[in-house]
Amino acid sequence: MSSAVPAPEGDIVxxxxxxxxxVDYSGSMGGRKIATLNQAIREAIPEVKKAVATxxxxxxxxxxIKFSDDALWHVGPDAVPLDQFVWPELTIAGGTSTxxxxxxxxxxxxxxxxxxxxxxxxxxxVSDGYCTDPSEEYNSAIQxxxxxxxxxxxxxxxxxxxxxxxxxxxxxxxQARPHRRRRQTLPAALQRSPxxxxxx
Length: 200
Hints:
Blueprint: E1 5-6, E2 12-13, E3 15-24, H1 32-52, E4 58-67, E5 71-81, H2 98-108, E6 122-127, H3 135-147, H4 149-153, E7 155-160, H5 168-176, H6 188-191
Parallel strand pairs: 3-4, 3-6, 6-7
Antiparallel strand pairs: 1-2, 4-5
Helix pairs in contact: 2-3, 3-5
């Protein structure tokens, strides 16, 4: 992150950092998976606060998109300051339309909605990977995201919940975007996920 820029009166000028959760609440996330997701995100929030405490120039605001048969706001559409963010309990329903969640994210990353002076957004997708979208629909959604300037700049990760070997969303994303692999420090709660974070 860049060094803080002092304002004329001596205060630190804050730049916004948009933080998006994209979370799977489909039927395949039942039982321990949805409980793990809820707990991991709740544990991640204090870790994010701790990390940003040493960077007073950064103002994190969070939102969350949940997806099953459709993509809906779980927290939003208005962004919530980090110190006011509370994770609502998520329960399961429906299929896994990851493409709809990515398209909803793409809309929010448009130049009209994002601050020109903000940091690159952080977007974390959490799923068990049983994506029910056709491959061409998912890849099309990723391409639309890549066409957005903020979509290209975003720090984007997918995290698998569960030990299944066919983590479809992560595998498709890696195939669609082999040229962009970022190494970033994730909150400790998310580092303990059974499957390592991968770009999407």
